[in-house]
Amino acid sequence: MTKILMMLLCALSLFAEDFISEFEYGQMLYRDPRGVSCVSCHGETGEGKDIASYRNSKGEKVTISGSDIRFVTLEQISKSIKEGQGIMPRYFLTNKEIRTIYAYLKKVNNDDNNGSQDDK
Ligand code: HEC
Predict the structure, then answer these.
(1) Which of 51, 58, 70, 101 has the most neighbouring CB atoms within 10 Å?
(2) 52: CA distance to ligand 1 center in Å?
(3) CA nearest ligand 1 atom 33, residue
(4) What percent of the chain is modeled with pLDDT above 70?
(5) How many helices (H) and strands (E) would you count in the chain?
(6) pTM attached to this predicted model
(7) How far is the CA of 3 from the centre of ligand 1 (A)?
(8) For 30-85, how does the pLDDT look when each residue is reduced to its tens digit (9 = 90+)?
(9) CATH number of the structural domain 20-111
């Protein structure tokens, strides 16, 4: 009896996985990529964001901001994630996860005319 129940639970959890679309998975990774969230520096949909600003010794205002990454290529995103860039930390995500984040950014920004070329 317990065995049957266990099998049922397993089957259920497998089905549950299907309820998460690639888009939702990409959004989830973008928000929480096992490290500092991309959102905190690049904004909810990759539009970029001011992170902090201060006055330097000359009294000039300096702003540190996360860049606009809405329309970056898969190569750019892969390089930045794996190597880090400036204050951006490096992440240890799989290529599939990186592609999924890329797909999320494309979809959330309706960038349809750019897919086939970068889809490797
Ligand atoms: C602590 C802040 C921070 C976090 C967190 C962060 N980034 Fe960045 N990212 C930056 C900054 C700042 C730059 C621009 C660096 C530069 O100009 O040298 C950048 C650059 C990039 C670029 C290159 C943009 C270009 O035009 O070449 C991509 C792509 C990118 N980030 C994606 C991501 C993704 C995806 C995540 C989450 C996995 C993430 N970043 C997390 C701060 C951050």
Answers:
(1) 101
(2) 15
(3) 38
(4) 82
(5) 6, 2
(6) 0.79
(7) 48
(8) 999 988 999 999 999 999 999 999 999 999 999 999 999 999 999 999 999 999 99
(9) 1.10.760.10
